[in-house]
Design goal:
The chain is of the alpha/beta class and 412 residues long. It is 40% helix and 17% strand. The strands form four sheets. The chain has an eight-stranded parallel beta sheet.
């Protein structure tokens, strides 16, 4: 049981303007500040897919988030440590995050990817597994045993080993090891999982304090606790109050939730967490979800969505997402989005990206990713500016009115 305090560190959060639950602020890290709200691009394996770190920085990204599970398996946390940590390894000069690996252990272990939804028939279970998949992860009160999706080798994550891996990876902001459930798990299981995550949180704090002292030659790493509880108000609020009373540097909001409930659930958590520490909403990137998260008090966000859909030809646009590979774009000698200020929109046409998509050229992935990442980074920057100016509600109404009101003709 952890009874001490986390050592003093060059990490802080300074709240700024507040509008209801929504707020601005500045997170100070050893590798520079993050002005919030902010969208954090995901570089799962120490790279934002299809982009050089220099390009990611040029898009206005203030930080990047990598994944502890994937980097543990390949190339190994010890190699990243020997390189000087995540930022040095990937030649990224700014702040870095790593998640704990808990989501990947669960999602890959039971065959689910991004969507952690309710079964179509509404049936819940204590033992959830995706149809057609073998169970690759087994949770117990000590940790999670899992089989690598790369080579079938056996591994185990505990709160202590997750902290050890993340300290070797050396990100500025790391997350406590948690159990991520699905909406198909029963209420009873969700209760037991929240209790398990709380116990793991205390073990993470103890291991983090020990490792921080041992690795004093490295910059301080801020540890965020993760609030779970699915869609149950009492579980979410209780988890937030419990973790909020512990000496975490900030908090992640994770787990299973339906899109329609996102703002409500984040609001419950924000109301219960300390005001003087940042809140990170894990794995959220759709524009309407970003608006809901900001309005409900979340400060930072990460998601693979902009780069993932770019590789499939999906382009984010102020009038809604469209597919560059459709015939309507074959002779469209115009930018992907005339209102976007990214490098791709300044220099390339839809017709050219249509050609690259049809030819399956890698440059098409890069150009589409540049646009999509910039689109979301800029959108959340605009939310921050609107909060400062008192215009957030007007921006939300104007943007979502266009983004969701009409479909692009012929897939554009």
């Amino acid at each position: 049981m952890f009874n001490g305090t986390v050592p003093a560190a060059p990490f802080s959060f300074t709240p700024g303007v507040r509008r209801g639950l929504a707020r601005t602020g500045v997170i100070a890290t050893p590798h520079g500040p993050i002005r919030t709200p902010a969208f954090i691009p995901v570089g799962t394996k120490a790279t934002v897919k299809a982009l050089l770190p220099e390009a990611t920085a040029a898009l206005g990204a203030q930080a990047v988030l990598a994944n502890a599970y994937h980097l543990y398996l390949q190339p190994g946390a010890d190699i990243v440590d020997a390189a000087g940590g995540l930022g040095a390894f990937m030649h990224w000069p700014g702040p870095t995050f790593t998640d704990s690996g808990g989501f990947q252990v669960m999602s890959l272990g039971v065959g689910f990817k991004k969507v952690l939804a309710m079964a179509s028939d509404g049936v819940t279970s204590d033992d959830v597994i995706a149809p057609g998949h073998d169970r690759l992860a087994h949770v117990d009160d000590d940790g999670v045993g899992f089989i690598s999706h790369l080579d079938g080798s056996r591994h185990r994550f505990t709160p202590e080993s997750s902290m050890a891996v993340q300290h070797q990876l050396g990100a500025d902001i790391i997350f406590a090891f948690d159990e991520c459930t699905t909406l198909m798990n029963t209420r009873d299981y969700q209760e037991r999982s929240v209790a398990r995550t709380a116990a793991w949180a205390r073990r993470c704090l103890a291991a983090h304090a020990e490792l921080t002292e041992q690795r004093s030659h490295r910059p301080y790493q801020a540890l965020f606790g993760v609030v779970q509880g699915a869609q149950y108000e009492d579980l979410r609020r209780a988890a937030a109050r419990d973790l909020g009373g512990l000496p975490f540097d900030g908090y992640g909001i994770g787990g299973a939730l339906e899109k329609a409930q996102l703002g409500t659930i984040v609001g419950w958590v924000s109301e219960a967490l300390p005001e003087d520490r940042p809140r990170h909403l894990l794995g959220i990137g759709e524009p309407d979800d970003l608006f809901a998260g900001v309005a409900a008090g979340a400060d930072t966000f990460d998601c693979v969505m902009p780069s993932r859909v770019a590789r499939n030809g999906a382009i984010l646009h102020h009038d809604g997402r469209y597919n560059i590979a459709t015939a309507a774009n074959r002779r469209a000698f115009e930018p992907l989005d005339a209102e976007c200020d990214c490098y791709t929109c300044a220099h390339y046409t839809r017709a050219y990206l249509h050609h690259l998509a049809k030819a399956d050229e890698i440059a098409g992935h890069t150009l589409a990713t540049i646009h999509n990442v910039r689109f979301l980074v800029r959108l959340v920057d605009r939310m921050r500016e609107a909060l400062e100016a008192g215009d957030f509600d007007a921006l939300r109404e104007e943007f979502l009115g266009r983004y969701g009101a009409r479909r692009r003709a012929a897939g554009r």
